[in-house]
Amino acid sequence: MSTTAPTVSIEEKNKELVADFMKVFSAGDVDKILSFLSPTATWWVAGTIDGISGSKNKQEFGEMLSSLSSTSKNGAIALTPLAWTAEGERVAVETESYAELENGRTYNNLYHFVFVIKNGEIESIKEFLDTEHTRAVFLG
């Protein structure tokens, strides 16, 4: 009888890393969130929302997170993964967010994230979302 542990695929490892990242993101600890990213990581957000859209390096992303977390009542935007696709170093995940904001509005958006994982760290994220909802809730 073999006692060899089953082999975990790179896709499963990468999905687990992204799931852990989303749990930490949902708690709002910016330093812990950034610890998942490689030193050269980039975060890109769709649209034309000032201060949110476009490409950011790790430091700029951390600054944006700090700013956004100050707008929510509990200091975080909760992310709930809904559906996963993983192939090699890429993990795509449909996600729903939820946060009650200090401005009295509720942020409840849908996303499609594409993560690229290299050497056990997040190298890049592309975030596709309902930009009009984001604009109306945060800036409206």
Structure description:
It holds the Pfam family SnoaL_2. This is SnoaL-like domain-containing protein. Residues 18-123 form the SnoaL-like domain. The protein is an alpha+beta fold. The protein has a single domain, classed as Nuclear Transport Factor 2, Chain: A (Roll). It is 31% helix and 39% strand. The chain is built from four helices and seven strands; from the N terminus they run ααββαβββββα. It has helices spanning 10-27, 30-34, 58-69, 131-139; strands at residues 37-45, 54-57, 78-87, 90-100, 106-107, 110-118, 121-129. Strands 1, 2, 3, 4, 5, 6 and 7 form a seven-stranded mixed β-sheet that branches. A hairpin with an 8-residue loop joins β1 (37-45) and β2 (54-57).
Distinctive features:
140 residues; alpha+beta; Nuclear Transport Factor 2, Chain: A; seven-stranded mixed sheet; 4 helices; SnoaL-like; NTF2-like_dom_sf; SnoaL-like domain-containing protein
Number of strands: 7
Helix amount: 25-40%
Cα-atom radius of gyration: 16 Å
CATH topology: Nuclear Transport Factor 2, Chain: A
CATH arch. level architecture: Roll
What is the count of DSSP helices, taking H or I runs of 4+ residues?
4
The pLDDT mean sits at: 94
Approximate strand percentage: 35-45%
Class by alpha and beta content: alpha+beta
Largest sheet: 7 strands, mixed
Shape: globular
The string of secondary-structure elements, in order, is HHEEHEEEEEH
> How would you name the oligomeric state of the polypeptide chains in this document?
single chain
Total separate domains:
1
Uncertain regions spanning at least 5 consecutive residues? none
What is the CA-CA span between the terminal residues?
64 Å
What CATH first level would be assigned? Alpha Beta
Protein name: SnoaL-like domain-containing protein
Domain SnoaL-like: 18-123
InterPro entries: NTF2-like_dom_sf, SnoaL-like
